[in-house]
């Protein structure tokens, strides 16, 4: 049997894949009714929770010159209730110093999967390949609590000191940008709501005044500005805000990565210290120290390689988001400017028309 499936965002989403089964491998007693081929798969760690539902139906016979076989439609549904740590924890355990993309609430779930799939190392992780269909679970905290490991790290290499300083500054700035951006969005939303109530007032006023055309033109301009503002805010919420918040989560992930690297080094430091003062079995300590030295070297090399890749991606994402924001801002303000310029032109035309009527 051959089948393939890919994770979708919510439990109501369906996937359709087609399995090919050799006609000769069928038993006469094998059920072929679609209802009899519905399977509910449970995971061993949560026996009472049905995580994956698979329905097999619509059998079709195919006869070729080489073989005879039947294809079925296989529909899978996932109930996304598994904990973040089920998947993220395994990635962190397998790759303690790789920069694992954050998995956060709301949108961007496909983006998370794409980042894992595009990663030169994480894409080959067995847990990613096996548990992809059910890894998107309770969205929220993306980083497991990691015990502080700075205590006991005696000599952090200079390059990791610089890396840590960069992360601290980056975290401060990106968190501040995220906070202010969210506040601006909230204030703009309140402004838009006020504008939507503001325009109709001019329409009501025009019914009892001689300035009918002027008041209606003002109302029309306000309405067009409202639509432009709504479109601008939509772009802000879909383009800039998610990118900024994603890198807020990345900054948290980076701090955890540095702590895990330091924890590995702290283990080595403690073994070296014990070996120096011969606090235990020397032969055993020597063996353990050698293994930890290899572990530290692998962890450091993995982090250094992933660090450069992450920085390049971050710079590209941030540059793209801010460039798009600038273009959206220009377009938005040009629309509003053109709207009010058209109002001034209409007023000039109206005054000329009135002057002409007076002369007549």
UniProtKB/TrEMBL annotation:
Gene Ontology biological-process entries: autophagy of mitochondrion; endocytic recycling; piecemeal microautophagy of the nucleus; protein transport; reticulophagy
Gene3D superfamilies reported for this sequence: Arfaptin homology (AH) domain/BAR domain, Phox-like domain
Protein topology in the membrane: Peripheral membrane protein
One term of GO molecular function: phosphatidylinositol binding
Top-rank taxon, per record: Eukaryota
A GO cellular component annotation in the UniProt record: phagophore assembly site
Cell location: Early endosome membrane
Family that this chain belongs to: Belongs to the sorting nexin family.
Entry protein name: Sorting nexin 7
Protein source organism: Microcebus murinus
